[in-house]
Design goal:
about 170 residues; alpha/beta; Arc Repressor Mutant, subunit A; Rossmann fold; 4-stranded parallel beta sheet; two-stranded antiparallel sheet
């Protein structure tokens, strides 16, 4: 059991997680916010705010970034089919070529340009290692959805299941 001391209260964090999971499960099954608020003895506005915390805008512009990707062409075709506005998928070799193909200042400028461009999208899907996912979430203001494809550092191309990416794209459109 994971506990947190807040002032003179002791909070059972595991219980909070279970209740939040139940709330989202009930909402996905069609229960109204008011029905759930009544069941958990809280306000409907709390349920609404809870949903807002994790909301990913439906539709809008989507960007997908991923590296090192083993099935790059397959994923690019899928992203084209779904009308993804920005895609940057790199194999391990392409990632190294990108980094080593420029001077330090040129690399920094190019990375900054890419960040500025990606920030113009509503939703960013990032396919990468656990550590890189944390960094991307910290850099971007956008709604960022991360798909962890392995522990950092990844030094080889990773196959990303297109069905996982397609399901994700379908859920945010």
């Amino acid at each position: 059991m994971k506990l947190a001391n807040i002032g003179d209260k002791v909070i059972n964090i595991d219980k909070v997680h279970r209740i939040v999971d139940q709330i989202f499960e009930m909402r996905s099954r069609g229960y109204s916010q008011q029905e759930i608020a009544s069941k958990f003895n809280t306000d409907r506005t709390f349920i609404s705010r809870l949903e807002s915390l994790g909301e990913i805008r439906r539709g809008g512009n989507i960007a997908v970034i991923g590296f090192p990707i083993g099935n790059k062409q397959e994923l690019e075709e899928l992203l084209d089919k779904h009308g993804v506005g920005f895609k940057l998928l790199l194999s391990e070799k392409e990632r190294w070529d990108f980094a080593l193909g420029m001077s330090g200042p040129e690399l920094v400028n190019r990375v900054m340009d890419l960040i500025a461009e990606v920030r113009s999208y509503d939703v960013v899907i990032f396919l990468g290692s656990d550590k890189r996912s944390e960094i991307i979430e910290g850099i971007l203001d956008n709604d960022v959805i991360t798909v962890n494809i392995g522990p950092s550092p990844l030094t080889h191309d990773v196959y990303v299941d297109p069905a996982v990416v397609e399901k994700l794209l379908d859920s945010i459109k």
